[in-house]
Amino acid sequence: MINFSEAVDECGLRYLMSVRHFEYLLRCLPLPQRAALRANGLPSANLIWALHSESENELFNSLSCVQRNEANWSDLRSLGVGWWLKSLQSLRLCFEKIAKAAFQAKNDPMDAALTVRDVKMTEFLSHDFTDAKWKKAALKNAFVLMSKQRFEHAVGWFLLGDSLNDAVKVCLANMNDLQLALVIIRLYEGDSDLARRLIRKVLCEQVLQCEEKVFEKTNDQSRGMDSVLS
Questions:
Q1: Does the structure show a pLDDT above 80 at 173?
Q2: CA–CA separation, 168 vs 194, rounded Å?
Q3: Residue 112, domain member (yes or no)
Q4: Which end of the chain is more exposed for a tag (fewer CB within 10 A), N or C?
Q5: Where is the RAVE complex protein Rav1 C-terminal domain (predicted)?
Q6: Are residues 14 and 79 in the same domain?
Q7: How far is residue 175's CA from residue 169's CA, in Å, rounded to a whole number?
Q8: Residue 99 located in a structural domain
Q9: Are 178 and 94 part of one and the same domain?
Q10: Domains in the chain: how many in total?
């Protein structure tokens, strides 16, 4: 049950109402339809309300799985959390909750591997992965996990091995999860220029389906046309 906090603004309330309806359908629809609904996630028209809300922390804390201390990426992805959490600090707190819930569920560090880079995997594993030797070992483990189709764990090991590009590629090519790929870039690189360039590149390739230089050329032409028309 969603707790409609008094601190949530009107846009946030509209989003939470859509979440409530979404979760009701997940409980009531036939199983095949539930799976399709979860895979598609909350419609983007509903996510816009959360994006325009000025109370994103309250929104996040009002979600059912968060209130139950069972935050997990599958549920949060279907609710579009990676799209509307604008604050990097809020995003980090979100993934810390996911990591904590994942670890407590089975007491297995690798269940939290995808999410704990920002709360230091060395709290869970004994080796220092800033060392070149252990980075190499992490990458080796990542490729072994890839061969076993344990893609989420592989992403975690790629991040331990300081290979952001490989982690992003797995999210896109093997997990079909654009939202997670962009979230990982933000968590890994922060609000840096590099993060913005990587996100721009991914969006050009995955959404616009063109190379970044083609987009830049088109954008330049568009700006030139705007100046002529103005």
A1: yes
A2: 14
A3: no
A4: C
A5: 5-114, 120-208
A6: yes
A7: 9
A8: yes
A9: no
A10: 2
Residue 121 forms part of a structural domain = yes
Helical residues (DSSP H) of the chain, grouped into ranges:
10-28, 31-40, 44-52, 56-62, 64-67, 73-78, 81-84, 88-106, 132-147, 151-160, 164-173, 178-189, 193-203, 212-229
At residue 4 the predicted structure's pLDDT band, cuts being 50, 70 and 90, is low
DSSP character at residue 211: -
Cβ(71)–Cβ(95) under 8 Å?
Answer: no
**Nearest partner of 42 among 58, 28, 21, judged by Cα:** 21
Name the domain boundary from 54, 88, 107. 107
- DSSP structure string for 54-90: S-HHHHHHHSHHHHTT---HHHHHHTTHHHH---HHH
- The predicted-structure confidence for 44-57, as pLDDT tens digits, reads as follows 999 999 999 999 99
Residues 169 and 194 both lie in one domain: yes
Residue 198 domain-assigned (yes or no) = yes
pTM of the model: 0.83
Co-location of 60 and 5 in the same domain:
yes
With a cut of 90, say whether residue 3 has pLDDT above it.
no
